[in-house]
Amino acid sequence: DDIEGMLQLLELLAGREQARRADLLPEWQAFLHQHSKFASPSSVKTTLYARLYNLVERELITREGMSYKITEAGRKWLWQSAARTPNRPAQRAAGCG
After folding, report:
1. 3 burial class (0-12, 13-18, 19+ CB within 10 angstroms)?
2. What is the pLDDT of residues 12-48, one digit of tens each?
């Protein structure tokens, strides 16, 4: 999950009340540029959508209209992941560690 950016998306959503995909796109793109070979705008958007869909299916986030919000289960999972990998500064900043 960490390699695929699931934790990154949960961290981004944990720091917001809710967010649209367009709100997450710049930070997601920066994450992908650092950690993957995805570079084209279409691949960045496609991977963001796929990861968000996965998190919705797992009930770690909810989708209301065009907006996404982290669930309590998502916060708990993020907190547990932070406990396993304490060197993730974004998780500490999101209040998860």
Report:
1. exposed
2. 999 999 999 999 999 999 999 888 888 899 999 999 9
